[in-house]
UniProtKB/TrEMBL annotation:
It comes from Sphingomonas paeninsulae. InterPro entries: Tnp_ISXO2-like, Transposase_Zn_ribbon. Pfam families: DDE_Tnp_IS1595 (PF12762), Zn_ribbon_IS1595 (PF12760). This is IS1595 family transposase. NCBIfam families: transpos_IS1595. SMART domains: DDE_Tnp_IS1595. Residues 147-296 form the ISXO2-like transposase domain.
Length: 347
């Protein structure tokens, strides 16, 4: 077993030196501190000095309107706030609430995150759920289309439908049955470089084999690819592919080619197990994106992680996640629709 399969990143993240943004730090923040932080994340190019969000203007001169708590651009006369045109564009929550919520989301427990968020920040469940989707929507804009190199592990994890993918062996049998191919059951395909600094990518597909063109594009031709015995054979035409037989003992032991993907997949599994809603389509893509962002920023200390996440969201375009969650019942909204910010994530 290669050494790369036994990395334990949680040791690293539990180190004291990483606890650089505690609750005490948060409580010590004054109103102006919140504003300074959000401004710096929104307009890093001017070190927090407001820039008109009107793309044709981008003016730097403006009046401060005390009553409205907004700026008015001297160039185009548009009014704007810190969050205008950002990933928080349609959010009415005050900045301290947004930061508390983001802290819980980024650094908080890994259980049912929506309930935790609701209790920690004192907002309704629906508000908390939508806010999380806005967070994920914003994080997506910081995920680069990277090409993985070296030793790369690929794996697929199935979600949606009525069969919970808790047991890998059952999963492998069930996913080939026709009744499970109803479009609600989708596979997240992930790839991750081995080793401590390994980077990850992921996408959502109906079948594992459909991911081959995407994998070809994002795995360097010189890389060595490790997989299970899934539908990956077509990668052999372009890549060195090492498939390992799936056996009982490997399953119990934690199969080497899934170890590196596990932190990404386990987040999705926990969500599916801990909720009454099936995650499918658009929402599955949200979680895949969430997993990739966390995976690729896992080495940052708490403050750096929180600031990077805030920067991603503040510089993202307005989130298109509104109240759709409660109208969204079927799986058929997930692909190709204009209002789906994750259309490219589901192929
Ligand atoms: Zn302007």
């Amino acid at each position: 077993m290669a050494s790369g399969g036994r990395q334990r990143p949680q040791h690293h993240t539990q180190a004291k030196r990483n606890r650089t943004f505690t609750l005490d730090d948060l409580y010590a923040m004054k109103e102006e501190d919140y504003e300074r932080l959000f401004r710096r994340m929104r307009w890093p190019e001017t070190d927090g000095e407001p820039v008109c969000p009107n793309k044709e203007c981008k003016g730097l001169d403006h009046w401060w309107l005390e009553n409205q708590q907004r700026w008015k651009c001297k160039g185009c006369h548009k009014q704007f706030s810190i969050t205008s045109g950002s990933g928080f564009h349609h959010t009415k929550l005050p900045l301290p609430t947004l930061l508390k919520a983001l802290r819980t989301f980024i650094l908080g427990s890994k259980g049912n995150a929506t309930s935790t968020l609701m209790k920690d920040v004192g907002i309704q469940y629906k508000t908390a759920f939508l806010l999380q989707q806005k967070f994920r929507d914003g994080l997506k804009h910081c995920i680069d289309e990277i090409t993985l190199e070296g030793e790369v592990e690929i794996d697929g994890a199935w979600f949606g439908g009525y069969i919970k993918p808790e047991n890998r062996k059952i999963n492998r049998v069930d996913r080939r049955l026709k009744e499970n191919l109803n479009g609600k059951r989708l596979v997240v395909v992930g790839a991750r470089e081995r080793g401590r600094h390994g980077r990850a990518i992921a996408r959502v597909f109906e079948q594992e084999w459909q991911s081959i063109p995407w994998l070809r594009e994002h795995l360097d031709r010189s890389s060595t690819v490790y997989s299970d015995e899934g539908q990956w054979d077509n990668l052999l035409a372009s890549h060195k592919l090492l498939q390992v037989n799936h056996s009982e003992e490997y399953q119990k032991d934690g199969f080497i080619n899934t170890n590196q993907m596990e932190s990404l997949f386990s987040r999705l599994r926990r969500f599916e197990v801990g909720t009454h809603h099936h995650i499918s389509g658009k929402y599955l893509a949200y979680y895949a994106c969430d997993g990739v962002w966390r995976e690729n920023n896992r080495e940052l200390d708490d403050r750096a992680k929180l600031e990077r996440a805030l920067g991603c969201i503040m510089q993202a375009p307005p989130s298109r996640t509104f109240g759709g969650y409660y109208q969204f019942g079927a799986a058929n909204l997930w692909r190709g629709t204009d209002d789906n910010p994750f259309a490219g994530w589901v192929q």
